[in-house]
Amino acid sequence: MGAGRFCFAMKVAFLFPALLLLGGCHALPRDPDGTSTQIMRSGILRVGLIDDPHPFDRGQTAALIARLAQETGAKPQTARGAAEPLLADLDAGRLDLVIGPFAADSPWKTMVALAPPLAASGTDDAPLQWQAAARNGENRWIMTVEQASRAIAPEGDAP
To answer: Is residue 140 within 8 Å of residue 128, measured between CB atoms?
Structure first.
C-alpha cells in the first residue's frame, strides 16, 4: 500500500467514528420520556396552575404559556388545583408543566426541575418564587422552559 493510500485509510478510520458520533448529537439534549416530542405530536401543552391566595401578577404566567405554545406549536390545556396533586400529575407524566409558587424549603425543589423565577410574592418571613416546574431529566423540555422563562421574566429579575 502506497503512502497516499495509507494516509487516506487513516483519515477514514478516524473520521468515520467521528461522523457517527456527530450524527447522534442532533437529538441532544434528550427527553428520556419524550415530553417535547409528545407535545409537538399531540399539539397539546398540558399545564397545571397552582391555586394560591398570595397576590401575584399572573400576566407572566400567561406570557410564559403563550410563548411555550408558540415555540411548540401546541395549544395550551390548563388545569387548576392544589400543588401536591398537580406536581404528582407532572411526575407521572400527565402534565407537561406546573406553574405556581415555590418556597425556598419546598421538598419538590429536588424532585422537579424549576425554571428561573417569573415573580416573587409572599412575606419577608415566607417568600415565594413563582416558577415553572418540569419533570426531572426531560432536558430538552427543561431547556425550552428555562429559555422562555428568562425571556418573559421582569427586567432585573432574570438571573
So the answer is: no
Cell of 67: 410563548
> Per-residue confidence of the chain (159 residues) as pLDDT tens digits?
566 665 555 555 555 554 444 444 455 688 788 899 999 999 999 999 999 776 666 689 999 999 999 999 999 999 999 999 999 999 999 999 999 999 988 898 899 999 999 988 878 888 889 999 999 999 999 999 999 999 998 764 444
CA distance 159 to 156: 8
Q: How many helices and strands, by DSSP H and E, does the chain display? A: 5, 6
User: Which CB contacts under 8 angstroms, 24+ apart, belong to 25-30?
Assistant: 29/139, 29/140, 29/142, 29/143, 30/139, 30/140
Question: How many Cβ atoms are within 10 Å of 67's Cβ, its own excluded?
Answer: 17
The pTM score is 0.78
Give the DSSP H or E segment for 91.
helix 83-91
